[in-house]
Design brief:
Elements lengths: L2 H6 L4 H31 L8 H33 L4
Length: 88
């Protein structure tokens, strides 16, 4: 049986529709809360280093991230250049 068929066999169809709609809204709210939590964890500042090694690892990660961003930017620029270059 589909959801629509299950709703139609209820005694009070309107109440069944309201209940199903409320369940869907609750599920959507739970997913939104999870998405917000994931986003906040992704953009949260890095915790302060407690040792010299942690500080060096953090610096290495930052340098590597910058290097990846620069190389990605160069690849994108080259792609645009080759895609829109004038042919002689």
């Amino acid at each position: 049986m589909t959801d629509a068929q299950e709703l139609l066999v209820q005694k009070d169809v309107l109440q069944a529709i309201r209940t199903a709609h409320l369940k869907k809204q609750i599920a959507v709210q739970v997913l939104q809360d999870q998405l917000v939590d994931v986003y906040h964890n992704a953009v949260a500042p890095v915790p302060e280093a407690k040792s010299r090694l942690e500080r060096y690892v953090g610096i290495a990660r930052s340098v590597f991230g910058i290097w990846q961003g620069v190389t990605l930017g160069i690849k994108v620029a080259r792609g645009f250049h080759s895609a829109f270059r004038r042919k002689r």
